[in-house]
Amino acid sequence: MFLSKWWRRTAILVLIIIMLLRPSLPGGGMSKQSLTQIDVYFLVDLSPSVAAEDYNGSRTRLEGIKSDVEALVVQHAGARFSLIGFDTKTHILSPLTTDASALISATKTMLPAVVTYSAGSSIDAGLEFMQAKLESVRKLRPERKAILYYFGDGEQTVTRAPESFSPPADSVHGGPVLGYGTASGGKMLEHPGSFDDPDAKREYIHQYDDN
């Protein structure tokens, strides 16, 4: 049997219900001039479970995330973009830039965290970092508006409850939470670490019965 029990305990519906209709995405009706005053942040959950193959059939959840990030970059052409990934730690994968091609290149290189090094994950792991980043930019450039897109699969594997997703006042001016995957989960290929042979044959992660 593939996947451990905690990979199946998803909160995907909590994420998806916030954002169901793509035509209502921020930026759809903005002019080119107004978009130049917008900073668009993409906050991506890169915990091991985004490798699960249950997005739109048998694609990985991360493939779905990458596809949507690229589409949103096109939709918000003219804005500044930043890509931020998190698992147990938060990393800036691309700082604020008007270079859409650079952002898309960074998006294509995103990889899930290595499951053997994971100590559990929380869907709110990147929020504290993101809040500090938004506040810092707002103080430097108060005239700019920020849109924050959150991409995740709802996997809460640590025992504590996640913190509130409500943004700090005046720091975010729009942006949905996007969810990926299914409640039943999907099989996952092992992801090699930075010191592993990238050409080595990868196996699916197995679940072994506790009894």
Provide an overview of this structure.
The chain has a single domain, classed as von Willebrand factor, type A domain (Rossmann fold, 3-Layer(aba) Sandwich). It is 24% helix and 16% strand. It contains 6 helices and 5 strands. It has helices spanning 5-8, 12-16, 32-35, 61-75, 100-108, 127-140; strands at residues 38-45, 80-86, 90-97, 145-152, 177-179. The chain has a 5-stranded mixed β-sheet, sandwiched between helices. A hairpin with a 3-residue loop joins strand 2 (80-86) and strand 3. Helix 4 runs antiparallel to helix 5 (100-108). It is globular and about 50 Å long. It starts with a helix and ends in a 32-residue tail after the last strand. The model is unreliable at 1-25 (pLDDT under 50).
Map the helices and strands.
Blueprint: H1 5-8, H2 12-16, H3 32-35, E1 38-45, H4 61-75, E2 80-86, E3 90-97, H5 100-108, H6 127-140, E4 145-152, E5 177-179
Parallel strand pairs: 1-2, 1-4, 4-5
Antiparallel strand pairs: 2-3
Helix pairs in contact: 4-5
Keywords:
211 residues; alpha/beta; Rossmann fold; disordered N terminus
Shape: globular
Tally of DSSP helical segments: 6
- The percent of residues in helical segments reads 10-25%
Strand order of the largest sheet: 3-2-1-4-5
User: What proportion strand?
Assistant: 15-25%
Largest sheet: 5 strands, mixed
The CATH homologous superfamily is named: von Willebrand factor, type A domain
